[in-house]
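Quick check before the chapter quiz. The format below is the same one you will see on the exam, so make sure you can read both the input and the output lines.
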Amino acid sequence: MAVAPAAIAFAETPWAPASTTLPGAARAGSREVPVKAGDATSVALQRLPAGASVSVLYGTELLTPEPLKADAEGKVTVPLKVPEGAERGFYPLTIVTQNPASVSQVVLKVSEVVPPLNADAFTLKTVPVGERAYQSALSADGKLFVATARGPNDGSTLVRLDAATLAVEAQAEVPKDAKGKQIGVFGVAVDNAHGKVWTTNTLSETLTVYDAADLKPAKIFPEGSIQHPRDIAIDEANNRAYVSAALSPFVEVYDTETLEHVGQLEFVADRGRAAFGTIDLTLDAKNGRLYSISRDTPWIGWIDLATGKSTTVSVPQAQGATDIDRDPETGRLYVVSQESNNVVVLDAEGEVLADTYIGAGGVSVVWDAKTAQVFAATRAGGSVAVLDRDGKLVANIPVDETPNHLTAGPDGAVYLVSMYGKPGDDDQAGSVTRITPAK
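Here is the expected output.
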């Protein structure tokens, strides 16, 4: 048996304290395209001190034979080759820097490509609309409202289309903020009862309500009045609008008749220390429940709107959850996740019934009552998966754009909003695709 020496000298490598926080930012792989077994990919680092050296390890295997140095802008790209035969899943990589010294981790996600399936069972019609389209909402009289926003300096639009033909009917004149820049429109919901369109202005941390008929602003809430507003759920019968303060546990409540802020709800994760960070909302108006998911922690939750009490259920199958919808007939919940690339089916009390892999980067899910099917969009996969009520994959429709949001109509049409064209294209034009069963 070998005996270890009592002490080992490290005279040639002086010890110095190191941070466990990367002095910059890192991303492994891509959210725009799936990283598969055998692919060439990279770890991209930025905002490092110029000249900082970077080494990357997988376990104890050094993936950088020689350290790489950040350029004058603090950027460095570490090329990687995913081994052939690597299983889909998460691969933690260790990043070691010097000048300054730090040790941290970044996770590389390896995905599988889900091939097209029964795509000819659907007809697709696509039209361009604005730049970087984010969400859409459908009114009871067949109008589709689409929110687009490229950035704080590049303009934003709220467009009204005829849902049947996708012809553009009107475009809002988006108001400007205190600095003279347009208040970007990201989230959108329709209040049919009062003829209004509610929008979230995420970068300005506010909301704007428009008249649906002429798209003129009816109310602009104060800038900074809501933290990172993202999603809106309208309860028309009770004159309420619920808005998620994204990545926080809070939902702000508004009166849709008076257009005033009237309260706040909170999702409480009552087990463990991981906070609930709301993203999407879906409403069960009949039973008085508001549902949401947490993006960075594995929580699914609902709030009893009569009492304000929240219930949260841990669903470890949903990693990086981004959207939730509900089948009102059965009460089943459908959750799509960007990190775990799946749709998780749960019963009304949060018990997992199915877990279906749909491809890289699930970003949106919607229940289509007309066909009794679930539609789920994948950003990196560039597809729309179709599942039956039990979570079985029955179709997978490839699209050329980068999907972002789905809306279901009462007639069996599903509307896909894509942020822009194929990954890597300079064209930033967003689009709307109407997906209908083939005749």
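If your answer matched, good. The longest strand covers residues 89-98.
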